[in-house]
Structures are given as C-alpha cells and as structure tokens.
Specification:
The complex is a heterotrimer of chains A (262), B (92) and C (139). In chain A, 61% of the residues lie in helices and 2% in strands. Chain A is an all-alpha fold. A two-stranded antiparallel ribbon of chain A has the order 1-2. In chain A, a hairpin with a 2-residue loop joins strand 1 and strand 2. Chain B is built from three helices and no strands. Chain B is 76% helix and 0% strand. The relative contact order of chain B is 0.13. Chain B is elongated and about 55 Å long. Classes of the chains: A mainly alpha (262), B mainly alpha (92), C mainly alpha (139). Chain B: It is a multi-pass membrane protein.
Chain lengths: 262, 92, 139
C-alpha cells in the first residue's frame, strides 16, 4: 500500500513538472530537418548515379557501421574480445569435464520443446544476420539472437550433457578465432588485391573510390550483396555466438569444494 | 478523432512513464530476483520507445541483450551467491 | 481550449523528463545501495538511458504541410528512381546516432559480463557480496 502511494507520487511529479516545463517554453523537441551530415549519408548510401561515392546498400545504418565508420566497429569487436579474455582468465583452473552419470536438467516436456524451437531460433538469427545489408539487422543482432539457444539448452538439459556432446571451451575458442581472423582478412582484402595487381587500394575499402579502382562486387548473380558488408556480417555473427557460448559454459559449471578451482 | 501525430506521442509518453515506474521498483526492492525481473520490464518499455523513435536496428540488438542475456547471466550469479539484500544493518 | 501544438510539446516533455528521472534514480541506486548485483542493475539502466537520449536527438518531427510521418533509415526497394531517393532523404530520421548506439550497447554488454565474472570471484574470496562488509574486512 505504501509502495502504491509512492508510485502515484512519482507519476504526478512527472506529469506536473512536464506541464511546468511545457508552459514555460523550456523544452527540447526535435526539429523538422536533419543535419547536413545526415543528408550526406542518406543520399550517398544507395545511389547508382555516382558509382565512385556510393556504398550500394539500401540500409543506411549497416553502411555507416561497416563502411563509413568501419574502424570504430573493429575496435568495438576488439573490446568485446578483451572482455571475454578477462573473464576466461578469471575462471582459470576450472577444467570442464563431462559427468556421465548425472541425469540432471528439467522435465521431458521442456526438453522436447527445446528440441523443436532450437533450430527455429538459429534460423531466425541467421536470417537477421545475413540479410543485414537489405533489412534492419546485421552481424551483432544475429549473433545475439543465436546466443540465446546455448543458454536455454544448458538450463533445460544440464551442462554436463552439453559438454558430453562435444561443445567444449576449446572448440568454441577455435570458432571465435575463426570469426575474428575472417573479420581481419576481409578488412585487409582490398589492400592485398591492390598490391597483387599493382593498383592503389586502401584498408577497409568496399567500393571503388575516385582515386582507386579496386572494388568488391556489389551484385552477385543478380542479387545485391554489397561487397564486404556480407562477409563482415557473417564472420561477426559466428564470433559473437561462439563468445557468448564460452561465457555461459564457464558461468554455469558447478565448482568443486576443495582445492580444484583457483 | 485524435490526429495520428498526437497518438504516436501519447504512446511514447506511456512508455516513458512505465519505464520510470519499473526503475523505481527495481532500485528499491530487497529481493534481488524480483529486481532483475523489474529491470527486464523496464527494458521492454525502452524497446517500445526505440521502435516508436524509428530505430529498428536498435530494437533488434536491445531485445535479445537486455531481456534475454543480461537477466539470464544475473540469475545464474544470484543462484550461486546470495539472494537478499540487507539494507537496515550497520550503515556504511 | 488547449491547442494541438501545446499537447504535442507536453507529451514530448513527459518523455524527456521521465528519462531524466530514470537517470537520477539509477545514480542513486549505484551509490547508495550496498549489494553488488544491485549496483550492476543500476549501471545497466544508466547506460541504456544515455543511449535513449542519443536516439531521441536523432528523431525528426512530422512535416507540417501534408502531415507525413518520419521513416526509419532504410530504402524499401532496390530499384531507385530520383523521386524515390529524394523522398527518402526528405522523410528519414538521422542514421548516425543509431550506429553509435549500436557500438555502445555492445560495449556495455561486454563490461557487464566481465563484472559478473568478477562478482563470482569476490564471493568465493570474501563469502559475501555486501560492499560495506567487504570495505571493513580490509582484504
């Protein structure tokens, strides 16, 4: 009862104070026009009439994240990787073993429903991730959606079952490394091709620029691929999903009582 | 009827007030499990606000992260450590 | 009577003020609540509210004549004519704050996962997660 009274006081504070602010003309509301920088990004993101300044991707946010400001996203992936390494270093000494005689987990109904909805979630996540250059989505969105499934499987079955099936920390680390190496190679691909052929090229280059002629294909067999954006999305999705699986495996493993963990 | 612009702003105001009530319940709750659930409710109101502000990329990032992964990790930590928060002991 | 313009301004002021109140409540929770997990919850609320401010700045109002609504920054087709492109530029919201918020959400998630690992090691070492008692134990 006391908490309900406090909630009503909070709501009336919000309504009354906003009324005072609106009457006194001291508000901040957005305008009707966007900034010139936004006009530049919006008008060059898919513009077939200026083929040396466009990104060939109808999705402006993915083009900004992986092409106009690709270096920021490279560093963000590095920060995520370092946080995961710090977590693994804190959990050193935990050696994950499979315990075959434990019949843990939840009931049969939960296990069956998890078996049905698991592939569905993976399919939705892959669709979000691989279509990031056409619809809202992208690498990290798809990876985070796929990463829900290991958590559900570890809780519905038990963590020993998952380790017994072969999903261990080392294999997930290999997958994560494959994703990161893929991102690095795709960032350097235009430069390597330019050095091999003998033309000017830049690091993290997607389409042909006025001073460089090396370009990734924008269309592949008639469908829009947008050059490096598709590869970036694919490798980021693999890396993010594998990283989250490692974190969940390390967190849910029950510790022994004496002398075995750090 | 109500003009459509005012209707959209009305939904935004409802999402804003709902999120503030959820934040108040989440901070001042002693049982940590209920606090995590209130934090997930606040994240749902924020996701509705992001959708009304025309940002679909952010909705697709925010929904798995703040409603699925963060409460999941926090509940695993609660099950391995304490569950109640004691405020009325010796003052810090 | 109250004009429509004043009602629109009032509703948007409610949104901004409730975000400011979220910020203040989460700062109080971060400083004055003694449990470690409550601090983590308050930190996630704080960073999410800062991201919402950024996206709110990138919004665009309905154009006065004609009453056309703003649109997300995605072109719906792949066959663009100059008319489609100019309408897209005239009606779409700002895509740059959304790209920056994407990075910020990922970094916030990475920090939270690391804090959870750290909290578990704290519990193993001190047998409690109450920060006042940890402060008194002095290692």
């Amino acid at each position: 009862m006391k908490r309900l009274v406090k909630t009503l006081v909070l709501v009336s504070i919000i309504l009354g104070f906003s009324l005072i602010l609106a009457v006194a003309s001291e508000y901040f509301i957005p305008g009707e026009a966007v900034r010139p920088l936004a006009v530049f990004y919006l008008s060059t993101t898919f513009n077939p009439w200026i083929p040396h300044l466009t990104v060939n991707s109808p999705e402006a946010v993915t083009a900004i994240v992986w092409d106009y400001r690709g270096l920021d996203t490279l560093f963000e992936t590095a920060v995520f990787y370092l946080a995961l390494i710090a977590g693994i270093a804190l959990a050193r000494g935990v050696s994950l073993r499979a315990d075959p005689n434990s019949e843990g987990g939840l009931s049969v109904i939960v296990k069956t429903v998890t078996r049905i909805t698991g592939p569905m979630i993976v399919a939705v996540g892959a669709s979000i991730g691989l279509h990031g250059h056409l619809t809202p989505g992208g690498g990290f969105q798809g990876g985070a959606t796929i990463a829900v499934i290991p958590l559900v499987i570890i809780i519905a079955f038990s963590v020993f079952f998952v380790i017994g099936k072969g999903v261990t920390k080392e294999k997930m680390l290999v997958l994560r490394s494959i994703g990161l190496v893929g991102i690095g190679l795709t960032a350097l691909a235009a430069l390597i091709i330019g050095l091999a052929v003998g033309k000017t090229a830049y690091v993290i280059q997607n389409m042909a620029k006025p001073t460089s002629e090396v370009s990734f294909p924008a269309y592949f067999n008639g469908s829009l691929v947008s050059g490096t954006l598709w590869f970036f999305n694919l490798f980021e999705m693999i890396a993010v999903a594998a990283g989250f699986t490692i974190a969940f495996l390390l967190l849910t493993y029950p510790e022994k009582k004496e002398g075995e963990n750090a | 009827m109500i003009p459509p612009e005012t209707l959209v702003y009305l939904f935004m105001a409802v999402a804003g007030i709902g999120s503030t009530i959820s934040v108040y319940y989440a901070i001042f709750e002693k049982d940590l499990l209920k606090a995590v659930i209130f934090s997930a409710i606040q994240s749902t109101f924020y996701a509705l606000l992001y959708f009304l502000l025309m940002a679909p990329d952010i909705v697709l990032v925010y929904l798995p992260v703040a409603v699925g992964l963060i409460p999941g990790v926090l509940i695993i930590l609660i099950s391995k450590t304490e569950r109640e928060e004691r405020v009325d002991e010796e003052a810090g | 009577m109250i004009s429509i313009e004043f009602l629109n301004t009032y509703l948007l002021s409610i949104v901004v003020f409730s975000l400011i109140l979220n910020f203040a409540l989460s700062l109080y929770g971060l400083f004055y609540r003694p449990h470690y997990i409550k601090k983590i919850i308050a930190l996630t609320i704080l960073s999410d509210t800062a991201n919402t401010f950024a996206i709110y700045i990138g919004y665009r109002r309905w154009i006065s004549e004609g009453g056309v609504n703003p649109r997300p920054p995605v072109i719906p087709t792949t066959e663009v004519t100059p008319g489609v492109l100019s309408e897209f530029v005239a009606r779409s919201v700002d895509p740059l704050p959304q790209a920056l918020v994407l990075t910020a959400v990922v970094i916030g998630l990475a920090v939270t996962i690391f804090l959870v690992f750290l909290g578990y090691q704290l519990f193993i070492h001190y047998k409690t997660l109450d920060m006042r008692r940890i402060k008194k134990l002095k290692g």
